[in-house]
Structures are given as C-alpha cells and as structure tokens.
Automatic annotation (TrEMBL):
One GO-annotated biological process of the protein: proteolysis
InterPro entries the record matches: Bact_exopeptidase_dim_dom (IPR036264), Pept_M20A (IPR047177), Peptidase_M20 (IPR002933), Peptidase_M20_dimer (IPR011650)
Keyword Metal-binding set for record: yes
GO molecular function: metal ion binding; peptidase activity
Name the record gives this protein: Peptidase M20 dimerisation domain-containing protein
Taxonomic lineage: Bacteria, Bacillati, Actinomycetota, Actinomycetes, Micrococcales
C-alpha cells in the first residue's frame, strides 16, 4: 500500500499535464507486488491504460466484477501536515493521497486474490477485476472496460465499486455502525453560468454590470434550493436503520413510509451530508471575472457542480435553474452532464452476498442501501448489469470522509485487513 501511494498518479483533464512516467511506474510496481495475480489472471489494457483482469472459474454463469481506480486528485502540498505522497506507515495507519480514494480498494481486492491463489483456490464462478486509470477526470477506461465485457458476452451477476463505507454517527439514535451500500448514484452536471456587459476602467463603474448580475444569480440559487424528496432507496435506508434505533425515534421511523415528506424536511435541516440525500445540490466551485484589479469585467462566469437527485434529469435541472435566476442575460451552458443511474435491488442474492461479507468483517454493522452522492466508474456498468453496487469495506470516521479530495488522507491498518477479509469472503463464499 505504501509503495503504491508514494507514486503520484495524479489525473489531469489535460493529458499534456499528466505525469506518464508516474503512471507507468505504478503499473510496474503493481506487477511486482502481485506476481501470482499476474501469472494466473489474463490481463487486457482498456482505454488509455485501464486494466481488466479475468480469473476464469469453473462456471461463467454468475461473473463477479470487482472495481477500483488508481488515479488520484491533485493536492495543494502546503495544506497538508506532511508529504501527501509519503505513504508513511504509522503504528495504526497508512498516510497519503489515494489511501481511501481509491488505492486502498485496489490493494485489498488484489491481496484477497493473491492470498487465495497462494492457497491454491480456484473460483467457482468467473471473476473480473476492472481497475481504472482516469476515474477522477471522468475518463474512458471504465467505458471501454464495459465495451470489452459486452463484446465477450459477459453480463455481470454482481458489480462492486468504491462508494459507501462503514460509518458511525450519521443516523440519529443509531448506536451501531452502518455499512452503507450504494444502490444508485446521483446524476452529475457541470454548468457554466455566464453574463456579459460593457467593460471599462474601474475608476468609472456602472451599476448592474456583469459581476453584479452574476452575483445576483448566484444569490437566487442559494436562496432557492431544490425541493426535497425522500427517494425509494433513501426510504429503504431509513427503514433498515430505523429497526436498530433506540428510544422513541424508533416508533417514528417504523412509520417512515407514511412520513416521507416530514422525514425529507428533517433530513434537509440536519446538515449538508443528510441534506444532500434528499435534494439536488448546487455548488458554485469557480468564479472568473476581470483580468486585472483596475479593469471592470466585460464577462463574468461561475462554474456550478450539480448532483442530480433520482427522478430528475439534466434537462429538468437546467430548466429549473433558469426559472430561479429569472434573468435573460444569464447564459447557462452545459459543460458535461449525466442523469442519475438506475437503482439496483436491495434484496435478492446479490445484496445478500454483500451483507454476508459485511457480517463476517464488521459483525456489529447494519447493512443498508443508500444513494451515492459522488460519481464513480460504476455508473457505466449499469449498461451491462442490473446489480451494480458501491461499497468500500472500510470503517471511516467523519474526519476520514472529509479527507477524501481534502487533506491528510489516511486509512487504518485494521480497515485494510478487514477489507481483504471482505473480498476473500465475497469471492469464495458467495452463492
């Protein structure tokens, strides 16, 4: 784990800024780390460098696909308390960018496969490992992995990618850990909000210029958030976790189905993490205006990163934003967008297989479905499978969850060990 974290496989939207040497070094180190895996599994390169492995089983009837990605987001080194690519191993943790997102998942999957191979194990069903190299920039490796599997006639029985985790303190009244398994993900929309006006010298400003209009539009979006709704997967999460809640709240949650509007409003008031469960969210992430301190901007632009609630679409979201802004001088331009995924079942053999692996590795945890707010490579696999799930088999504190795409990311050694056990059980003990 430490050796792989030390290699800065940072993805950039512009391939010209990417360190190809680091990516090549990662593959070489990965090969050396897992010799049995590379000896016994067939490897195919997909896209710009993604890796697709096939571990042939006795049957191809119920193929399993295990996913991870090994590219990471950029860092601002000065914000970290230590070298973000140190890979430092302390008494309890491994530190560095990518430990949680998502080299940790890659490592525990490969450790599970490597140790099973060392024991002479041969799977009853085909197993595929799909490791992406460009997930952080919404690249093509996962898309081409899906195309490759489709060309082979593979319909995955179960797909698992990064996503939920084993968490505590995220649900009122629940004193047990919750293993949250993503059964769907929100849609993703990157939008430019732009307006233009006459520029000029800052010594002679006019009222109502481009910056003022853009600020007014952003203010309206902030003051008029999207309406809340408790989707079917969110309701299933509430009902599942509610069975284990103590105190008077348990009686309330037992009637969750008849209290959906009230529960949705309650989630919206509990904080940003729970509010994101019940509505489409809009985050203004970048602002651009004047090129100089003494120049009035002739053009002002904001970039909005939007996560689309199930039941809505890119088109319906853009239409509502226009209705809220109410300014014809404001242009809304879709940079990229994808609708929410379909919903995988939270009952049946596949979800039971995940629940069983959680019970072995985190015996106190309650396994429940949820909708993933972030985007992942898994969304592409809905095209070839009805059972696509998002779960990282790691216990994560709130501090750790905040460190994903943040600073001072780390994973515990205990979580890594449990992650290996999770995947060993999933491969060797599933139906």
């Amino acid at each position: 784990m430490s050796a792989l974290v030390r290699i800065p496989t940072v993805s950039h939207p512009d391939p010209g800024h990417q360190d190809d040497v680091a990516f090549a070094r990662f593959v070489k180190t990965f090969e050396a780390s897992y010799p049995l895996l590379h000896e016994h599994l067939d490897r195919t390169t997909v896209g710009p460098g993604g890796l697709l492995f096939h571990w042939a089983g006795d049957s191809a009837e119920k193929p399993l696909v295990l996913m991870a990605h090994w590219d990471v987001v950029p860092v601002v080194e000065s914000d970290w308390s230590e070298d973000p690519f140190s890979g430092r191993v302390s008494a309890t943790d491994v530190h560095g960018r990518g430990t949680l997102d998502d080299k940790g998942s890659l490592v525990v999957i490969c450790e599970a496969v490597e140790t099973l191979l060392a024991e002479g194990y041969s799977p009853e069903q085909d197993v595929y490992l799909s490791f992406g190299c460009d997930e952080e920039v919404a690249g093509t490796a996962a898309v081409e992995a899906v195309d490759e599997l489709r060309s082979r006639g593979v319909t995955p029985w179960l797909v698992i990618d990064e996503g939920g985790a084993v968490v505590e303190g995220v649900f009122p009244g629940l004193r047990r850990p919750a293993a949250l398994v993503g059964v769907a993900e929100k849609g993703l929309l990157d939008l430019e909000i732009t307006t233009a006006d006459q520029g000029g010298h800052a010594a002679m400003p006019r009222q109502g210029g481009a910056v003022a209009r853009l600020a007014r539009a952003i203010g309206r979006l902030d003051q008029h958030p999207f309406p809340v709704t408790l989707t079917d997967p969110a309701l299933a999460m509430v009902e599942t976790l509610g069975e284990h809640v103590r105190g008077p709240l348990r009686a309330v949650l037992s009637r969750a189905g008849s209290l959906r509007p009230a529960l949705a409003q309650a989630f919206a008031r509990m904080g940003p993490e729970t509010a994101a469960v019940v509505r489409t969210t809009v985050a203004i992430t970048r602002l651009e205006g004047s090129p100089a301190a003494n120049v009035i901007a002739a053009r002002a632009t904001a970039h909005a990163n939007i996560r689309i609630q199930l039941g809505e679409t890119v088109e319906s979201v853009v239409a509502r934003l226009g209705d809220v802004i109410k300014d014809r001088t404001i242009e809304l331009r879709v940079v990229s967008g994808s609708n929410p995924t379909s919903v995988s079942p939270s009952d049946g053999e596949q979800f039971d297989a995940i629940r069983s692996a959680v019970a072995v590795t985190y015996p106190d945890a309650v396994t429940a479905p949820y909708v993933m707010m972030q985007a992942s490579d898994a969304r592409h696999f809905h095209a070839i499978s009805d059972h696509v799930y998002r779960f990282s088999p790691f216990a994560m504190t709130r501090e750790q969850r905040d460190s994903i795409h943040g600073v001072d990311e780390y994973i515990s050694l205990d979580a890594l060990g449990r992650g290996v056990a999770f995947y060993r059980h999933l491969i060797a003990e599933r139906p």
